[in-house]
Structures are given as structure tokens and as C-alpha cells.
Amino acid sequence: MPVTALYASLLAPLFILLSVRVIGARASRRVAIGDGGDAELVRRMRVQANFAEYAPLALILLGLAESLGTHRAVLHGLGLMLVIGRAAHAWGVSRNPEPFVFRQAGMGLTFTMIALAALACLAGALPRLA
Q1: Are 124 and 70 contacting, i.e. CB atoms less than 8 angstroms apart?
Q2: Rounded to an integer, what distance in angstroms lies between the CA atom of residue 25 and that of residue 12?
Q3: How confident is the model at residue 125 (pLDDT cuts 50, 70, 90)?
Q4: Which of 65, 98, 122, 123 could disulfide-pair with 70, CB 3.0 to 4.6 Å?
Q5: 34: phi then psi, degrees, rounded to nearest 5
Q6: pTM given for the model
Q7: Taking the domains of the chain in order of start, what are their residue ranges?
Q8: CA separation for the pair 11, 82 (Å, rounded)
Q9: 2-129 belongs to CATH 1.10.3720.10
Q10: What is the biggest distance separating any 2 CA atoms in the chain, rounded to whole angstroms?
Q11: What tens digit of pLDDT does each residue of 72-111 get?
Q12: Termini Cα distance of the chain
């Protein structure tokens, strides 16, 4: 699944960056567990957690769609939507004050990608069930 591998490899550094930001905030504020009541740490934690909540399902759907023979152009379109969506969301939510348009665009792209990837999986799976 080379297309899925490509987009997973592009998303991995973003997840590492988001994780390092959380670790750095925890270390500088001496907070081992939880958020210590620090609003900036909460924001960083939520950005990382949101990524961890959506990216795995999206990549699984992308991989399944690829394994079912979805056209590579469609797969690349989905992969780009995911990378751009996750990056836009992370950048937007990481800012204070938050440029809400990036959060909205990021989630919109992510939700659209998940829905379209699910449809691609359905289209690829249904004919094989008969």
C-alpha cells in the first residue's frame, strides 16, 4: 500500500511535533499528569489528541480503499485532503487567539476525507460480497 504509506509518513512528523510541544509544555510547567490548570497546556494537549483521534481512522480507511483497488488519483486526493486538513487544524488550534477559519477548514477537510474514503471502501467492497 504505497499511497497510504506515503501519507502516513507525511503525517508522522506532524504527530511527533505536536507530541513534543505537549512534552515541552509539561516539562516547563512541571506538570507530570493532567493539565495542571494551565490553559496553554490544555490547548496543546487537545491539538495532539484531536490528531490522534482522527488520523488513525482516516489512514485505515485510506489503506482499505487502496487495498480494494481505488484509483491512485482518488487516493492521492484523499491523502492530500487529510494532510492539509490535519495541518490546518493543528496550526489554527495551536494559535491564541485562534484563527477559527483554520480549525473549521481542517475539520471540514478531515471529515470530508473520512466520508469519501468510507464511500470508496463501500464501492470497492460491495461488488466483492456478491
Answers
A1: yes
A2: 20
A3: very high
A4: 65
A5: 80, -160
A6: 0.93
A7: 2-129
A8: 9
A9: no
A10: 58
A11: 999 999 999 999 999 999 999 999 898 999 999 999 999 9
A12: 25
